[in-house]
Design a protein that fits this description.
By secondary structure, the chain is an alpha+beta fold. The protein is built from two helices and four strands. A two-stranded parallel ribbon has the order 1-4. The protein has a two-stranded antiparallel sheet with strand order 2-3.
Length: 135
């Protein structure tokens, strides 16, 4: 990381990493202990400076490196997200019913997917955290 805001970006990455550790999102496995046919997904950081001046970092799997039937089952790749139209419709219903709403900024969100029994996913150590996992 470089630039005038590098310390703020580093703090955002450390905050995300802390949330991942707190929620036990992953456990480190030395590469030499991986199964012979293990497929390793490469990770990347997505950085965003929000309108309120908050710096956010999210760890993502590099989807463009993944292949159907090798890294995932191509039949079940949907993610439960709301699009703009859905949000607008909900807001209209709220106005019609005279309900009040609150905007919430969630710091750490970790989706929980269902994996087949025994299925494990391996991902490279996040960039900048190699020294945390010596082996």
């Amino acid at each position: 990381m470089a630039g005038p805001d590098k310390d703020k970006w580093k703090e955002a990455v450390k905050e995300e990493y802390g949330c991942m550790e707190k929620h036990k999102v992953f456990k480190p496995v030395p590469r030499i202990k991986l199964p012979m046919n293990a497929k390793v997904i490469i990770s990347t950081w997505a950085m965003k400076k929000k309108a309120n001046g908050t710096y956010r970092a999210r760890l993502n799997a590099r989807g463009y490196d993944q292949r159907d039937q090798e890294h995932y089952d191509g039949l079940s790749i949907a993610a439960p997200v709301a699009n703009d139209m859905t949000i607008h419709i909900v807001m209209v219903f709220m106005l019609m019913a005279e309900w009040y709403g609150h905007i919430v900024d969630v710091k750490g969100v970790f989706p929980h997917g269902d994996f087949e029994y025994g299925e494990e996913i391996y991902m490279e150590v996040p960039q900048g955290f190699e020294s945390y996992y010596s082996s």
